[in-house]
Each structure stands twice: as C-alpha cells, then as structure tokens.
Amino acid sequence: MNEDTxxxxxxxxxxxxxxxCEIPLTGRQQGVDxxxxxxxxxxxxxxxxxxxxxxxxxxxxxxxxLVNHMARQIYTLMKYESANSEWNNIYxxxxxDIERIRIEYNKVKNTVQKLQFVCMWVQSDNTVIVxxxxxxxxxxxxxxxx
Length: 146
Known about the structure:
Blueprint: H1 3-16, E1 20-21, E2 34-38, E3 41-47, H2 63-83, E4 89-96, H3 99-114, E5 117-122, E6 128-131, H4 137-142
Parallel strand pairs: 3-4, 4-5
Antiparallel strand pairs: 1-2, 2-3, 5-6
Helix pairs in contact: 2-3
C-alpha cells in the first residue's frame, strides 16, 4: 500500500466521522499529509506507505527504509506539535497495517503514546483501526473517532 492510498483512506475515515478534511496530499507534495477539523479540534496526519507511490510492481520498502520512515513520521509530528501546540490538536501517524511496520512501531509505542500521538492503521480494505493513549479516550470518543 502506498502513501497516497493511506492518505485517502485516513481522509475518508475522518470525513465519515464528520470532520471537514482538506484534500489529502499526493505524490511528492510537501506539508501535512491529511489535515482535518471538527468542533475546534485540528488533526494533523503524517502518513507513510509500505511501497513507493510510483511502484509499478510489487516492490516494497526494505526494513531500513521502514524504520527511517517511522523515525521521520515521529519527528515531523513533533515539529507540527511544536509549531501548533494547542490543547485541541491531535497528531496522528498513519501506516498500512502490516506486520513489519507494527513490529517496529511496537518498539517505540510507549514513547509515541507519551507524546500523545495517535496511530491509525489502514487495512487492506481501506478501513482504519485507531490506536491511542488511554488518556485520549474521552476526546476521541467525543469526536466520534473511537
């Protein structure tokens, strides 16, 4: 699954939950991959895929690339949080739900959750599973995300 597919799945999920969502980024566009708003809460999503957007075949990223992508996701969300640090912002990592990415995520999950970042896992049918710090349950429930 490429990054464009992840972006579209997350945007569709948020729209289905009543969010106003900007058009998700595609290709090599720079900026917030998916940005949405509802009830004065802004969402910033940094997405990655398991293959290149331009991959014509089944070429997937190797282990090192996946680790590098996750590190960049977390760094990018930290930059967004530093530039927009308000109580009503939610920062989300979005990835395809594949075992290789989950294994690497689980190695840093506790720290990611301490940062109050949410993780969205895009399934092969483009549905989304949300994983979040327990402290965010009420907010995410009120927004219809959980």
